[in-house]
Design a protein that fits this description.
With about 220 residues, the chain is of the alpha/beta class. The chain is built from 7 helices and 8 strands; from the N terminus they run H-H-H-E-H-E-E-E-H-E-E-H-E-H-E. It starts with a helix and ends with a strand.
Length: about 220
C-alpha cells in the first residue's frame, strides 16, 4: 500500500499541476501570475523571472515619489515643508548632488552607500557633508534618510539632483530615477516657469511620464 501511495504522489507531482490558493490582494494576484508564467512546462526565460521578482519587490515596498526639477527650484525646501522638518540641506546655489531616499525609520539617521559597496550610518546633523556637491562627494552612490514620520510608512520620497545641473552625470542619475519611481512631482519656480531650458526638459520627459506626473508651482 505504501508503494502505491508513493507512486500516486510522484505521479501527481509530475503530471498534475495543483494551483496553490492566493488571496485577492495585488501581491496575491502577482504571486498567482508568477506561479502560472514561470511553470517549467512553458520554458520561461530567466529575464521574465527576474522582471517578475523585481515587480514583487516593488509591490511589497511603499510607493516611491520623486521630487524633481531644475537646480535651485526648491526641491529640498519643498520636502522639508512637506515633512515638517528641516532635515535636508538647502541653498541658493545647487546643493543636492546625490539621490536622497527618504524612508520611514524608528529614529532620525542617514545611511551612506558608497560606490565601492560600503555602508555607513551617521547622525542626521551630518547630512550636508555627504550630499552637498560643494564638499566633494564623488565616491558616494546615494543616501537614505530615515525619519519616524507616519507619512513615510506609505511613501518613499526621492530627492534628486537638478535636471539642468552643470554635471551631465547628475542629470543622467535623475533620469534613471524617474524611470523607476511610481510618481513624480515636477517642481518649478514661478520666476522660471516656461523658460526654454525647462520647457526642453518637460517636452522630453513629460510625454513619457505624464501618467505619473504632477507639476507644482513653487514660491507662488
Amino acid at each position: 500500500m505504501s508503494l502505491l501511495k508513493s507512486f500516486i504522489t510522484s505521479y501527481k507531482k509530475k503530471y498534475i499541476n495543483i494551483t496553490p490558493k492566493f488571496d485577492k490582494s495585488l501581491l496575491g494576484l502577482l504571486k498567482k501570475s508568477k506561479h502560472t508564467l514561470l511553470d517549467d512546462r512553458l520554458s520561461p526565460s530567466i529575464n521574465l523571472a527576474h522582471l517578475l521578482d523585481k515587480l514583487e519587490v516593488r509591490v511589497k515596498e511603499p510607493m516611491k515619489v520623486a521630487i524633481t526639477g531644475q537646480f535651485s527650484s526648491g526641491k529640498s525646501t519643498f520636502l522639508n515643508a512637506l515633512l515638517a522638518k528641516n532635515i535636508l540641506p538647502t541653498g541658493i546655489t545647487p546643493v543636492t548632488s546625490k539621490v536622497n531616499y527618504i524612508r520611514y525609520g524608528d529614529e532620525l539617521k542617514i545611511r551612506v552607500k558608497y560606490k565601492d559597496g560600503r555602508d555607513e550610518y551617521h547622525d542626521i546633523q551630518n547630512i550636508s557633508r555627504f550630499t552637498d556637491q560643494r564638499k566633494g562627494v564623488e565616491d558616494i552612490d546615494y543616501l537614505t534618510l530615515y525619519a519616524p514620520l507616519n507619512m513615510l510608512k506609505d511613501i518613499v520620497f526621492v530627492d534628486t539632483p537638478g535636471l539642468n545641473s552643470s554635471s551631465h552625470l547628475d542629470t543622467a542619475t535623475t533620469i534613471k530615477v524617474l524611470k523607476e519611481v511610481d510618481g513624480i512631482i515636477w517642481l518649478t519656480l514661478i520666476d522660471n516657469a516656461g523658460k526654454m531650458s525647462e520647457t526642453e526638459v518637460l517636452q522630453r520627459c513629460l510625454q513619457q511620464y505624464k501618467n505619473k506626473s504632477l507639476c507644482v508651482l513653487n514660491q507662488k
